[in-house]
Amino acid sequence: MTDPIADFLTRIRNAVSANHKVVEIPASNMKKELTRILFEKGYILSYKFVEEGPQGYIKIALKYHPESKKPAIKHIERVSSPGLRQYAGVDKMPRVLNGLGIAIISTSHGVITDKEARTLKVGGEVICYVY
């Protein structure tokens, strides 16, 4: 697999479009950080890291509105890819939907959101947009 992060995002996107409650994804440290951020920002209901086999996997419970059954994740998109890395300095940090969505950035301070990167005054690689 050439881009495991794109696979992670695609599995979530496909599970949301198929109205699944839970999705299982092979684990890695970067995927664990992305999952943690999605949970902290309220895009997923819960998650669990299962250490099974050589790699383990992440079990993610997707979040839907109780009455309308609309998903919390409307759009999830990979920005930087292995073939074309996208970097942003603190002055050029992207704003997703004018601040309503989040951009996940890989920085020297770890994997953080665009708002946290602005407050820490650091730039980095733009991993994905979520709204």
From TrEMBL:
Family: Belongs to the universal ribosomal protein uS8 family.
Swiss-Prot/TrEMBL GO biological process terms: translation
TM region positions: none
One Pfam family it belongs to: Ribosomal_S8
Subunit structure and binding partners: Part of the 30S ribosomal subunit. Contacts proteins S5 and S12.
Species assigned in the record: Williamwhitmania taraxaci
GO molecular function annotations of the record: rRNA binding; structural constituent of ribosome
SUPFAM superfamilies, sorted: Ribosomal protein S8 (SSF56047)
Record's keyword annotation contains DNA repair: no
Superkingdom to which the source organism belongs: Bacteria
Underlying gene: rpsH
GO cellular component, as recorded: cytoplasm; ribonucleoprotein complex; ribosome
Function: One of the primary rRNA binding proteins, it binds directly to 16S rRNA central domain where it helps coordinate assembly of the platform of the 30S subunit.
Keyword annotations from UniProtKB, A to Z: Ribonucleoprotein, Ribosomal protein, RNA-binding, rRNA-binding
Record-given protein name: Small ribosomal subunit protein uS8
